[in-house]
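Entry 14. Structure prediction run on the chain below.
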Amino acid sequence: MEIIWLGHSCFRLRSEELIVVTDPFPSSIGLQPDSRQATAVTISSAHPNHSNWQEVVGEPQVFQSPGEYEYSGIAVRGVMTPLGQGYDLTTRNTAFCIQLDGLNICHLGDINEPLTSNEIDQLLPLDILLVPVGGVCTLDVERIYQSVQDLDPKVIIPMHYHTDNVNVPLGNLDAFLRLTGTSDVEPLSRVTFTSSNLPPNLQVTVLAPQARAS
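Output returned:
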């Protein structure tokens, strides 16, 4: 499976002809939204920065609610995460686990409260975790790191943090890297994993956003 980070919380997951796009964003965040064809799209919340599926071409199947689904060989499981105090119901977040090419990849979306033990059980097992690390509207970096430990993935790919051109106020990546003991990371344009090349121990993989400035 090939993984490309387009920016913010949006990834493109590809396995041969199957393509899943997560949380597509609008150009208003400072990046040009993705317009390539997709088989399926997952939407973690109704926030405009996470739900611009109309600009993804190819008439994709859109998943935006908790539940278990299967479409065109792609298995998807959505788990609603806890709603933080002071947040209204329109900000409800769904974490999505996507099974593709024999791998389980989990996109946590805008998680703003720690997962319960029951929710963790629903998300497991997983191999690759796409995790927000910029705080502000998500868990702070210490609590998001605890969630990472609870979910015990083989690979962590950070998302939803400050990058060039994006006008969303978020923290940077450095604090999370310090917590994970990761240093001298060279961001990659893309990464490919198979069930046989997953690392034996936890690995942080940093991707460079591939969407162009709008």
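The chain has a mean pLDDT of 91.
Filed with the rest of this week's runs.
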